[in-house]
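Go through the following before class.
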Amino acid sequence: MKPQVKKALLLAAGHGVRLRPLTLERPKPLMPLWGTPLLERALRLLESWGVEEISVNTNWRPEVVSVWLGGRKGSARVRVSHEPKILGTGGALRPLRRFFKDEPFWVMNADIAASLEAEPLVEAFAQGGFASAWLEPGKGPRTVETDGEGRITCWHSQTPGAPGTATFCGLHLLSPRVFDFLPAAAFSSIVEAYKAAMAQGLFVHGVTVPGSYWDDAGTPESYLRIHGDVKRLALEGKRGGELYDPALDRQRADAKTFFCVAEWAEVAENVVGIDSVVYSQAEVSSGSRLTGCVVAGGCVGGALEGLVCVNASDTVGEEGLLSAVEAMGWPPEKTGVMFLGTRGSERSFWQVWHRKRTAIYIHYSLARAENARYAGHARVLAVAGVPVPQVLADLPEMQCLVLENCGNDSLQRRMKHAPQGLRKNKVDIWYRLIIEALVSMHGKGTGEVLRRGVKLEPHFDDALYAWERGLFEEHLLKARYGLEGLPPDVAGELRAVAGRLLGARQVLVHRDLQASNILFRGMYPVFLDFQGMRLGAGAYDLASLLYDPYVILPGSLRRRLAAHYGACFPENTDAVTLLHEGAVQRLVQALGAFGRLAAAGQKEFERYIPQGLSNLLEVATALGLNALAGLTKELTAREKKRQ
């Protein structure tokens, strides 16, 4: 006999980390899908199946969920089950045993887009009476395996995505017997209970529901994709299309793209939106163009692509950001902010907008003292004529600052994406302008910091050069390639290189002048990440630029650019004559850093190791450093075996 299912648990406690900043203030289940929160859509679906009592668990921003539920009107009685510490899908059930009593009940994720009939799951449940779970064979991670009778045999397939696998959609019908199999631990997954039950001969029916629609809005990209999929399904007259609201779509009903604009959003009529969503209370300035954007708050403008922002007032836990925005005189509720991520040197970055004005907010840790010097260094370098971002706000007591946004047109990006025809005509000019900016730093910049007594990082000395060699030895030779250490003859050659650099004229060096740290405003370069600047050999910076593993330069161009440096700064011929020594030292440091970062999980840095080794072999050979050249050949062979 098929059961009458009257109760359900909606899982709404997750933090939605991959969707931040959208979920900093608004829990993921309250994110709107075509204007209606995902949680509301889940509640309506359950109510349409005859569910009369629903418990909603909470953890992240519980007060927001509670207030929203308090204003909701629906046929089911809804209660909140708050978890001060998140309990997982299994742990969430334990406090609800008395609520469910001896009746079967639904458990459903509150942050999915779903459209289906309940009947197939109810019928499957009636066959075994323990549990049935909705499966999707065509999308998602597909980690579930079933046998020939549709019973789930494995929840974590060793061959995800293989034929016959499916994705668990976060909706299941359970017997109260599941409570007998919940682990004793406070936090647990429902899958743990299922595995325990399966070990005692019980099973979960995996049910594929024909004509159903499911997807998980786990990332901004999937969140936008779901909006487009729902519109397409509506055009095709298929299930899931009922989630589409044409009244909110500024694109034509038959267009393949969409532009979902909430009723109370302030979006000028001439704004163009392609596959983008704008929430209520957000603003988009006249003449703007959005592509693949989610504007959940603030006032933004311009040609924006991939923007995912909230207003500054909704950045929970980022008090410095709110204060910095106010210090610039921008109203927080009219300022859009987007998290850019964390990067090296213990810093996190946000992009901020107010209408068509934009800037970069940086929050830094004092674990690296140099971080607190960025703003002061920027001001001194600007006085010396070195192109750097303007400091818009500096709040050292909160360890944050705001810089002019110079865009994302880096030298690395230009050299990778510029058409070959353009590169032949422009690369010389780009690099000559960078060389001239570098001369300003080495020349006028040196004089300015010495005259002002600016506090810098410790200057290059034997100890610092030895530390860079140690980075190379520990993280590349030993950790990556399994060598015992730096061979004595190689160590001797590297010490000699460092000695020659110490004998050179000492100037103000950037210390990290690679292609990713040079942006362009139009034709003119801007230097970034100079907080570690110190006195040292100018050849270190010049080599960082010309022998950068991020960009491959022909030897003829390197020679022309080195000559241009010498012509612009004849007082520092050391930088040119010791260019290969500077390259050896810089590449040793960079390769060690690549090894360390790759081992720490930042695998993208592995791609630069082969070119770094190639450059190191070239300069070692040019200097007659036979031991270093031999070691580099061995490392190159070992790297090829890893590929």
Notes: The radius of gyration is 30 Å. The mean pLDDT is 91. The chain is about 35% helix and 20% strand.
